[in-house]
Amino acid sequence: MAGDGLAAREVGVAAQLDLTTCDREPIHIPGAVQPHGLLLIAEPQTLTIVAGAGDIEGVLSPDWLGLTLSDVLGIDVAAVLERAAAGPGGTVIGGVVHGHDLAFHRSGAYLLAELEPVDEHARGAAETLGWLDATASGFERTASLKALCERAAVAFRTLTGFDRVMVYRFLDDEAGYVVAEDRDPSLDTFLNHHFPASDIPRQARALYVRNRTRVIPTVEYDPQPIRPAAFAGVDLSDVAIRSVSPIHMQYLRNMGVGASASISIVKDGMLWGLIACHHHAPKRLSRDVRTVAAALAGGLSRQITAKEEAESYRERLALRTEEDTLLPALFGDERLDRVLARRREDLRRMMGADGFAIVGEKVETTGFCPTDDKVRKLATWVGRRDDASVFSTRELGADWEDAAGLSPFAGVLAISLPQERLTLLWLRAEEVEEVEWAGNPHKAVRHDPNATLTPRSSFETWTQTVRGRARRWTLEQVDAAQRLRRMLREAGLLGELRRVNADLSRANADKDAALAQKDLLMREVDHRVQNSLQLVASFLMLQARAAGPGEVADQLQEARSRLSAVALVHRRLYRDDQIATIDLSRYLTELLDDMRTSLGRDWGNRLSAELAPVLIPTDRAVNVGLIAAELITNATKYAYSPDQPGPIELVLEQHRNKLRLIVADQGRGKQGDNVGFGSRMMSAVVQRIGGEVEYQDNQPGLRAVLTAPIEED
């Protein structure tokens, strides 16, 4: 029969009500076992049997209560427990006793001994291992998850011999889905059918993770209670022959099943699904076969993981390839919104969307999209969400009350970029689903919490039409959207940085042009000042020659030397690009050359210099030059006779942030304290640059030492 278009979430509510009720049943402490096996409960220290269940008297001993496990089983139980390796859940396999497979389990304060009849027709170890290896190789060769599950159904039916074997997968809403089936042709199929989550409640799922195999040899059995009844509350979670819930037994009868078996498919510690086996008549599954089935299920789980990871890897690789092709364009010089508009079809295909829209100053769309005003309304709603990350949904109506206006679109993947004032929307149209249920899931609801639990009785195919849902966005696509959002944000910041840098570059260019013009004007001024000073110096030289030898000529010559020191700076500034600072050593070298010319060859040959490079502001260089010229002039006047020139040494040194200028001669030394115009001028200049001049005995001669800061404090 067909459903009337109920939304899928109504089924979820119904299943939740029923699950809450079923979860109350304590299936791990049934207080009984299935009659094909035996259970002994003993004290772990003394191994004394305190309780049991099953036909112990008929198989082991009529007087078993109070005896030790070793006495009843006829083996050294302590030695077995000591040397045997514990398996899953702490279970220890004890071998074969009285025609039964023996296993030991720990349960709280007790040691449990479980016995099941041995399968007399079991395969040999070599045959079993060969079959397992061949089957596992077949699993590896499958090309897809669907093909793997189909081959697994065939393999498990071959192993168990049951009429029907289903690979049953749990979905996100905890409902079950039959992905593969191998069955007797006379049976109806459950392939692609859904089963509500209430069919396997939570505590049953937990036990399926703990016990990887579970067998019910017949649904028509009488439970064998634990004796004495005081021990009925012992936890039998690890016991394979644990009695089954009466509700589940009735459930199987309603399905027409005579025997069942379940093998867990556990992936990364979580219950991925089950191998569900049904048989029309009673059928046992020995411990050996269950062990092989558990091993095969482990191999199947690993192959499922490999197939899912391979599929995920292929999708991630395809998405990464699309991102890599987009990356150069995003980080180019073109505006971000223009790049996205130009590549919008690539972005649509990247996510497998029916339509794609970019909402900014205007709406740009491609593919199958709603009208621009509807797209902008959706973008406005996305932008108002508190969650700034990527938004994704396959059922927009569950999140947005105005989703009906966007019909037929139900799937949305959105990236909001507030700083760039852009919203990117990938859209998927509704896909109407026809979900086949094994019976009407709504009939499983129980509203009375005190009512007797009963399973549903019908498994006739019930079809439900599900609307308002689109194809699900994969985790890889959502992750790719997250990466794309980060890339777009970085590209937006880079674009903003480029714009700021362009503005700064223009401002710097304007500043450089202004500075270049200023430098040109300053050099022109320096050139004209230097020419004027040179002209005045020439006039002074001519005047000195005209005056003839004597005091007037000497004073004119001194004035010319001082003027040359100033003119030399302007000449150098006119030649150099750098006008703020000057190399004092080069300046003093040229000053010394000029003084050699003005003093004559005899004096010029006696002048020597040892100058260290010192960068100094231009205005301070002029002052230091005036002081140097004055000290050299004084040495020529007072240290030696006019007709007997002597050595004069000029030394320049730098000590941290100070300079030291030394003018030394080997003449008569300091004679008196005469203070003339030159001395007063030099004192004023020294004071102006914050320096001091110290006169020392050069033995023989005088040593004048100027110490001053390189830069003004």
TrEMBL record:
<dbReference type="InterPro" id="IPR036890">
    <property type="entry name" value="HATPase_C_sf"/>
</dbReference>
<dbReference type="InterPro" id="IPR011495">
    <property type="entry name" value="Sig_transdc_His_kin_sub2_dim/P"/>
</dbReference>
<keyword id="KW-0808">Transferase</keyword>
<feature type="domain" description="Phytochrome chromophore attachment site">
    <location>
        <begin position="144"/>
        <end position="303"/>
    </location>
</feature>
<feature type="coiled-coil region">
    <location>
        <begin position="497"/>
        <end position="524"/>
    </location>
</feature>
<dbReference type="Pfam" id="PF08446">
    <property type="entry name" value="PAS_2"/>
</dbReference>
<dbReference type="GO" id="GO:0009584">
    <property type="term" value="P:detection of visible light"/>
</dbReference>
<comment type="similarity">
    <text>In the N-terminal section; belongs to the phytochrome family.</text>
</comment>
<dbReference type="Pfam" id="PF07568">
    <property type="entry name" value="HisKA_2"/>
</dbReference>
<dbReference type="GO" id="GO:0016301">
    <property type="term" value="F:kinase activity"/>
</dbReference>
<dbReference type="InterPro" id="IPR003018">
    <property type="entry name" value="GAF"/>
</dbReference>
<dbReference type="InterPro" id="IPR043150">
    <property type="entry name" value="Phytochrome_PHY_sf"/>
</dbReference>
<dbReference type="InterPro" id="IPR013654">
    <property type="entry name" value="PAS_2"/>
</dbReference>
<dbReference type="Pfam" id="PF00360">
    <property type="entry name" value="PHY"/>
</dbReference>
<dbReference type="GO" id="GO:0006355">
    <property type="term" value="P:regulation of DNA-templated transcription"/>
</dbReference>
<dbReference type="InterPro" id="IPR029016">
    <property type="entry name" value="GAF-like_dom_sf"/>
</dbReference>
<keyword id="KW-0716">Sensory transduction</keyword>
<dbReference type="InterPro" id="IPR001294">
    <property type="entry name" value="Phytochrome"/>
</dbReference>
<keyword id="KW-0418">Kinase</keyword>
<dbReference type="InterPro" id="IPR003594">
    <property type="entry name" value="HATPase_dom"/>
</dbReference>
<dbReference type="InterPro" id="IPR035965">
    <property type="entry name" value="PAS-like_dom_sf"/>
</dbReference>
<dbReference type="Pfam" id="PF13581">
    <property type="entry name" value="HATPase_c_2"/>
</dbReference>
<keyword id="KW-0157">Chromophore</keyword>
<keyword id="KW-0175">Coiled coil</keyword>
<keyword id="KW-0675">Receptor</keyword>
<protein>
    <submittedName>
        <fullName>Bacteriophytochrome (Light-regulated signal transduction histidine kinase)</fullName>
    </submittedName>
</protein>
<dbReference type="GO" id="GO:0009881">
    <property type="term" value="F:photoreceptor activity"/>
</dbReference>
<dbReference type="InterPro" id="IPR013515">
    <property type="entry name" value="Phytochrome_cen-reg"/>
</dbReference>
<keyword id="KW-0600">Photoreceptor protein</keyword>
<dbReference type="InterPro" id="IPR016132">
    <property type="entry name" value="Phyto_chromo_attachment"/>
</dbReference>
<dbReference type="Pfam" id="PF01590">
    <property type="entry name" value="GAF"/>
</dbReference>
